[in-house]
Amino acid sequence: MGEIHDGWDARQTADRRTDAELVAAVRDSDRGALRELFARHEPWLATRLSRRCADQTVVDTAIQDTFLAVWRKPGGWRGDGEVAAWLWGIAVRSLLHELRPRANVVERLRTLRRSPAVSAEEEVLARVEHSDVGLAFSRLSPDLQAVVQATVLDGLTTREAAALLGIPSGTVKSRMSRARTELREALL
């Protein structure tokens, strides 16, 4: 008999529902669906967040907040784009939220040396988000945004982005080409 954890038999076969079906089930308060989303996506989310923040406690909190947000508002995923890209967006925002100082100015100055440093990447992304480039990016279709996010912002290879997004490598390349064209036109 397999070991039982939290009412779930570890030997039972993996849930065969798609990520989209799991999110729909979470909308219906299906905890098993949330557990399956966590099992599928937590490992790579934790790895990628750890590349941005060395403090494992902060990374763990960001992961927890990510799946709590999914549980509370599964309707945040509108059904377009990849669920994995949606989860990544929540995870990055959760990490940034954890790293952002929330104390008053005097308190922040007192604890400045003890605070985790914000990476140069995070500073650039924050500036870009509110620039013409950020506006042009927000106007791209979700499919194009997911490819740009995976290849440019996350630094994945075409093959890694294809695996993450569940699409062929050629599709990643063609969407990236289309995104470049649309961004270039929007910024002229």
TrEMBL record:
Domain RNA polymerase sigma-70 region stretches? 37-102
Q: Please state every residue range assigned to the domain named RNA polymerase sigma factor 70 region 4 type.
A: 135-183
Which superkingdom does the taxonomy of this entry point to? Bacteria
Quick check: keyword Transcription in the entry? yes
Write one Pfam family the protein is assigned to. Answer: Sigma70_r4_2
Q: Which UniProt keywords apply?
A: Sigma factor, Transcription, Transcription regulation
CDD domains (alphabetical): Sigma70_r4
Alphabetized InterPro entries for the sequence: RNA_pol_sigma-70-like (IPR039425), RNA_pol_sigma-70_dom (IPR014284), RNA_pol_sigma70_r2 (IPR007627), RNA_pol_sigma70_r4_t2 (IPR013249), RNA_pol_sigma_r2 (IPR013325), RNA_pol_sigma_r3/r4-like (IPR013324), WH-like_DNA-bd_sf (IPR036388)
Q: Which family does the record assign?
A: Belongs to the sigma-70 factor family. ECF subfamily.
Q: This chain belongs to which protein, by name? A: RNA polymerase sigma factor
